[in-house]
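Record DUF892 family protein, 158 aa.
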Amino acid sequence: MSTPTKEYLDTLTRYYEEEVEGEAYFYAIAERLSDPEERRKMEMVAEVETYAAAAVEPLLQKYDLAPASREALAASGRKMAADSPGDFLHFLRKWQVEFPGYIDEFEALEAMAPAEDVPVLKILTDHEHAAIAFIEAELKGEANSTAPMQHYLETGTA
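=>
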């Protein structure tokens, strides 16, 4: 086992925390959507965040990392949602611009990771690919736009 850098461990912890915050954020957005189908899709985005966070938890344990509490992170995610106005389409368009940048960040984490951690980190990276594929399909009006997220939830791959 190679020795991880402090930058890697700090980034790993922060990205895990962001996934837990994201889970609460997306569930909070879903709660305020009136259309049941839009709500279901937003809840699936939250489930993708949950899956990604759970995939990373063994690395936190491996390195004895102590992220913020789930309760504090969930409260932060709900507050971010409360401070984010917009409807379903607004969020999709916003995330269509924002989410691709996260791929670079996750790949940078993979590049600084000990080789044995990379397979787990690819699960984290792939959650973003799945979300982006969903957004693109949804904005094109594709009937089965959630298929990329469903595939991710079933396999851990995009």
